[in-house]
UniProtKB/TrEMBL annotation:
Organism: Luteibacter pinisoli
Sequence ranges assigned to domain NADH:flavin oxidoreductase/NADH oxidase N-terminal in this UniProt record: 4-333
GO molecular function terms listed in the Swiss-Prot or TrEMBL record: FMN binding; oxidoreductase activity
Name the record gives this protein: NADH:flavin oxidoreductase
Protein keywords: Flavoprotein, Oxidoreductase
Amino acid sequence: MWGMSLPNRLAVAPMSRVTATPDGYPSQRMVRYYEGFARGGFALLITEGIYPDKSFSQGYFNQPGLADDDQAKAWRPITDNIHRHGSRVFAQLMHAGALSQGNPHRSHTVGPSAISPNGTQLTFYKGVGQYPTPVAMTSGQIDEAIGGFVQATVRAATLAGFDGVEIHGANGYLLDQFLTETSNQRADEWGGHVIKRVRLLTETISRVRAAVDQRFPVGVRISQGKVNDFHAKWPGGEDDAAVIFRALAKAGADFIHVTEYEAWRPAFDGADTSLVALAKRYAGDVPLIANGGLHDLQRAAHMVKQGVAMVAMGRGALANPDMPSLIASGRALRPFDASILGPIADIKESELTLRHG
Ligand SMILES: Cc1cc2nc3c(=O)[nH]c(=O)nc-3n(C[C@H](O)[C@H](O)[C@H](O)COP(=O)(O)O)c2cc1C
């Protein structure tokens, strides 16, 4: 798949760990953290959300960037180490939009419309209180945001040593804010019917796709739930899913990473099809990555049987950075201990000890 040899179907899900330097360089601790998953046998690692530009994209203090050439080169020790163990690594590119809660480059946030986000800032990423009300983006700022994804992708491919990128279209961040009716009330070509609300996603995918070699995978992550609205559902149900998955495939996505809290559950009330199964139904033959509660390995195996290309593990991988090795040797998985993410979700020395034995 993607012209790559992948020894298994296990991927590490993207997980923000706010452990970069204040100016967005990956730290030594991150080098050891990522290497642990590769040493443990994961075929593919997807990084935490990385900010692509020094304008409005950064979401958290101590988030890493790919926003200039020096930041990109600083990823080399991470990508080289991962490759040394025979694994692959995709950079997740994330524009936080209205959910930015720590951006030294700007003093206000932007989004599709000037609507206050639901929920409160994430304290484990150092946030406090309500999200500010964003300023509605101009068409120039939308173009600049797309350009940020394009340039960060070129840096990821040429300077940083990544094997692909995942455009973060899920979980309530900028591209999902455009997709979502309640946060996007624009009357221009970027708002209205779902076909227009998905347009920022498809424009970003196609412009990124066109900027790098065809063999360099460019995928997208998509969800209904959001960090600030856990139970959100696409209002048009399966009709929306059909429009969205068809549009992502048509835009040229090389994979679609579908995430739900529990990936096997029906996507909509009163129906029995999961969002992954709907992606399979409407995205043609685009490879799928499934995520959400799949450290239950029977569920994971069932996903593979349904035809997904890979299953991505979040919390399961944190508890078991050596999960593929454990499975191969028939040993039990460790339960996830949420305390490692508190009070701040930065990488703890205790996790690294687990990785290095
Ligand atoms: C600490 C932590 C950080 C996360 N950061 C990101 C992120 O940067 N980008 C993203 O798309 N998802 C992020 N997620 C969501 C995970 O990728 C995944 O969807 C979620 O943990 C559910 O999968 P699981 O049941 O395998 O844990 C994060 C999850 C955790 C636990």
